[in-house]
Amino acid sequence: MNKFLIVLGAMFALGSTVSFAQSNNLSIGIEGGVNHSSLRGNDHDSQLVRDPGIGFTAGVSFTYGITDALSLHSGLLYERKSTRFKLHYVDPTGTTPSTTKAHSNFDYLVLPVLARVTYGNKAKFYINAGPYLGYLIQQVDKAKAVSSTTFSNIEHYNRLDLGLTAGLGAGMPINNNSMLTLELRQNLGLYNISKASESVNSDMKTRSTNLLLGIAYTIKNQ
């Protein structure tokens, strides 16, 4: 809970800073791409070994200019974090133990609040960092055995996810008001998303590396 309050406080402080920058430009855009995601720590099922998987991220973005070099970047993203594992099962005859490949999808709504430093003239290069708040809207496990099987274990996980985000990227102007961006972004979860009791030594945290392509349109103040 303390981490949750700290992150919310940081978001409020950054938002307050922007509210006083009334003469600055606002950029609105979309961004999306693929991610490489994993879960750190111990699963509620001690027999389950999870490997990293490939997911995706997509959403809208907002950038508020504070100075020529400093801005606040935020947005609302749909991020699918995926992991892979081997599922043990017994065939329909009930006699032959087998294994099959399976994967878990964790679908989050993610709100990052990032301080961004930009440099460059025509081509822009930037770094950004800050907290993010995630909310788990869906969790699905999928396995292929004799037939495809889909089931959800969302009751085993906390809905909230809190963490830190850092990234670096570049932007190339398309015209006077539009820019194409490419960013490599790392999301590191700091909050235990597992609901399992401490007696089973369960402590699971998210991590994802995102490659994001975006386009932004700048609304310039007169």
From TrEMBL:
The keyword Membrane does not apply. The keyword Signal applies. Gene3D superfamilies: 2.40.160.20. Residues 20-193 form the Outer membrane protein beta-barrel domain. Residues 1-21 form the signal peptide. Keywords: Signal. This is Porin family protein.
